[in-house]
Amino acid sequence: MSLPEGPLVLADPALAIDPDEVLRFQGYKRGRDVPGPDVRALFETALAEGRRLMRPRALVRWARVTRVAADALEVEGESLAIPRIGALWGEVEHAAVALCTIGEALEQRVAELWEARELPLASMLDSVGSGAVESLAEYVNDVLCQQGLPSLKVTNRISPGYADWDVAEQRRLFRLCPGDAVGVVLNEACVMTPGKSISLLAGAGRAARVDHYFSQCARCWMRDCAYRRVPARATVHR
Ligand code: SF4
User: Fold this and answer.
1) CA–CA separation, 161 vs 171, rounded Å?
2) Is the dihedral of CA 112, 114, 117, 118 positive or negative?
3) Is 144 in the pocket of ligand 1 (CB under 6 A)?
4) Which of 30, 46, 109, 115 has the highest Cβ tally under 10 A?
5) Which atom of ligand 1 is nearest to the CA of 226?
6) Domain residues for 177?
7) Per the omega criterion (within 30 degrees of 0), is the bond before 120 cis?
8) How much is the average pLDDT of 46-56?
């Protein structure tokens, strides 16, 4: 096993965008709310426009983990205060920082549509963008898992601002992995531009804990992976 050294750009993966995920951003509950034909048609229009506008890309950088504690992880001298990380991930020796984005064009088009009072399409296109960047983050998590195989287990991703991890820690992630190569910048309030961007961290180790709340394999697109732990239900790759 050898993890890639230095920053790596993943450009233009053939992303699959889950309609249910997009509709979830519209307030639909999976398995309970059934969208009508008008909503389906609006989704197809927004998806076609979104595909034309988005430019998915991600920057990945592996780094050495120098200390694991109950609520902290030290990565190349950056001390990340992540609640319960020791129990969640177990022993990890490496961590990958990734910045995922679909670019600015889609959100600029959403702003134009709001201006023109085309509100349903503006809202659906915005949700398509949110669904796309989520798919991209899943895609990257799958790539990280493949990079760790066969000897390292790779955890599910976590992000600052979610599950009690302070959003201010975005600054530490950006110090480990500056976003210039994919055009992602962080402002004083720790908000990323373009807005449809996700920063994430995943751990890797021979004894890392994986699959205790969700199996990454269930959404992984690597159909012929010899190390698959559960069958794929859906994928984020066309
Ligand atoms: S199928 Fe599972 S083990 Fe194989 S690369 Fe995907 S997530 Fe990793």
Assistant:
1) 12
2) positive
3) no
4) 46
5) 4
6) 8-212
7) no
8) 96
Q: How far is the CA of 17 from the centre of ligand 1 (A)?
A: 19
Q: Is the CB of 216 under 6 A from ligand 1?
A: yes
List pLDDT tens digits, range 109-168.
Answer: 999 999 999 999 999 999 999 999 999 999 999 999 999 999 999 999 999 998 889 999
Q: Does residue 143's CB lie within 6 angstroms of at least one atom of ligand 1?
A: no
Who's near 193: CB < 8 A, 6+ residues apart?
104, 184, 185, 187
232 belongs to a structural domain: no
CATH number at residue 146: 3.40.109.40
Verify whether ligand 1 is closer than 6 Å to residue 227 (CB atom): yes
Number of domains forming the structure of the chain: 1
Q: What is the pLDDT of residues 172-209, one digit of tens each?
A: 999 999 999 999 999 999 999 999 999 999 999 999 99
Q: Is the CB of 217 within 6 Å of ligand 1? A: yes
pLDDT tops 70 at residue 107: yes
Domain assignment present for 85:
yes
Distance between Cα 210 and ligand 1 center (Å): 11
- The predicted pLDDT at position 16 comes to 83
Does some domain include residue 69?
yes
Residue of the CA atom closest to atom 2 of ligand 1: 217
Q: Is 146 in the pocket of ligand 1 (CB under 6 A)?
A: yes
- Percentage above 70 pLDDT, the chain: 97
**CA-CA-CA-CA torsion for 152, 158, 160, 163, nearest 10 degrees?**
-140
